[in-house]
Amino acid sequence: MAKLTAGDRAPSLNLTTVTGEPARSPDPDRLVHLQFRRFAGCPICHLHLRTFVRAADRLTEAGVREIVFFHSGADELREHVSDLPFAVIADEDKRWYRTFGVEAGARALLDPRAWPGIVRSVATALLLLPSRKAHLPAANPAGGRLGLPADLLIGPDGTVLAAKYGTHADDQWSVEEVLTLARTAGHAAVGA
Question: Which residues pair with 88 in a beta bridge?
Fold first, then answer.
């Protein structure tokens, strides 16, 4: 499927998380931030998601529900995401990645703009390994190492409010960008 843009209708999702809980999009009561990350144990993804963990209360207050996809199997993924306070979806066969137009490619790691994030995240992961706050990724992760990230903000009616398809492994929305988009979406709903 082609990449989605603002104004498109997002596919409806009735999913099961790696912990067995239901996860749906759209959500009639909240905005849904779909995060397409890379593989279980990806150091960049781990560091990025920690910022969302620290901001979980702010995101909830802003009316945003997080759903995070990884192109890894549920068994492999559980140990890496057990402490995340939001829905995590295993998509080992990349069904949802294809549905939402999320790509992979060598530019994920070869783009020089990714290198500072790679160095920072690998260094952080190595520091956290002794305390078991990080886990090493598999030698050959499901779906490979060349996945690109993507972020979509879905309105309660299923409309894509904003979308970002990363051009390299460390190209994704920050917490502040999601909060700004949520505020903008709230203002648009009030003005509608």
Answer: 68
C-alpha 192/C-alpha 117 separation (Å) is 39
Calculate Rg over the CA atoms of the chain: 16
pTM above threshold 0.85: no
Chain center to CA of 133:
19
What DSSP state is assigned to residue 86?
Answer: S
Number of structural domains the chain divides into: 1
Dig out the tokens for 159 from the structure: 């409309």
User: Does residue 36 form part of some domain?
Assistant: yes
Q: Which amino acid, one-letter code, is at 19?
A: T
Q: Contact at 8 Å (CB) between 12 and 141?
A: no
Phi/psi at 21 (5° precision): -85, 150
Strands 64-70 and 150-154 come out as unpaired
DSSP character for 54?
Answer: H
The chain-wide mean pLDDT, for the chain, equals 84
- What gap in Å lies between CA 46 and CA 31, rounded to an integer? 23
The answer as to whether 8 is a domain residue is: no
pLDDT in tens, 141-175: 666 667 889 999 999 999 999 999 998 888 999 99
CATH number where 112 lies: 3.40.30.10
**Bond prior to 26 in cis (omega within 30° of 0):** yes
Whole domain around residue 155: which residue ranges?
A: 29-191
CB-neighbour burial class of residue 130 (10 A; exposed 0-12, middle 13-18, buried 19+): exposed
